[in-house]
Amino acid sequence: MTDTELRLGVNIDHVATLRQVRGTDYPDVLAAARLALQAGAHSITVHLREDRRHIQDHDVEQLVREPGLKLNLELAVNAAMLDIAERLAPDFICFVPERREELTTEGGLDVVGHQAAIEAACRRFAGAGIRVSLFIEADEAQIRAAHACGAHCIEIHTGGYADATDKTTRQALLSAIRKGAQLAHSLGLEVHAGHGLHVGNVAPVAAIPEVVELNIGHALVARSVFVGLGDAVREMAEAMRTTLGRDCGGVGGLQAGDGVVHGRTQG
């Protein structure tokens, strides 16, 4: 990876959501992953929740067997989920907080408050050769705790920035993300970011030089209703690339002026 390359990880949880709400065997999660990769995604992310509201165990089993697919498995830090992850052996693991009543992940992992358990989990998978990331807020104490736990990477929660309705708040949260990324990078952590990002708000986060990977899902699945998943991925790559002078590692195919909408995605 070059100094300016920025990877795109595509989260396909909500392809599974469409399937689960009707109890069908379609849309096919593996087919969605293949489409995203063909469009230039670097990796596929899925969250295997304890309540199995979207992704199921058999989805992960299919994805880890797919040649050439790099799988980032999100999961909570508890014994049952850790055992499943160890058995399935994805390429990457990202530990996330989880509550059954939430609509989506609502914030970052409290590494400071659960450091012993998280450190044990990090070391367990690092010992198996699996890259470990922690999904956290852009908070100095949490970032330093993540480093102390032995994580390889952090993924900065961008939901607050993405949901901010006024410019002052949005800029303050973006500044915090930028400072958090700088601190993490200085500690030797690889920096990722994600949650709530869409083509209308992704560019300022993509412009942060320490951020090397963005993981994006809901906006892509929503946009795919109108343009298809492949074009949704290509549009996102173009939005990430616009005016940044950064290389998205060959992702894309659309050029500026090809009708890519840079406003908020529908859905």
Secondary-structure blueprint:
Layout: E1 7-11, H1 13-20, H2 29-38, E2 43-47, H3 57-65, E3 71-75, H4 79-88, E4 92-95, H5 115-126, E5 131-136, H6 140-149, E6 153-157, H7 159-163, H8 167-186, E7 190-194, H9 202-206, E8 211-216, H10 218-227, H11 229-241
Parallel strand pairs: 1-2, 1-8, 2-3, 3-4, 4-5, 5-6, 6-7, 7-8
Protein architecture, described:
This protein is of the alpha/beta class and 267 residues long. The chain has a single domain, classed as TIM Barrel. Helices cover 42% and strands 15% of the residues. It contains 11 helices and 8 strands. An 8-stranded parallel barrel has the order 1-2-3-4-5-6-7-8, surrounded by 7 helices. Strand 3, helix 4 and strand 4 form a beta-alpha-beta unit. Helix 5 packs across helix 6. The longest helix has 20 residues. The chain is globular, with a radius of gyration of 17 Å.
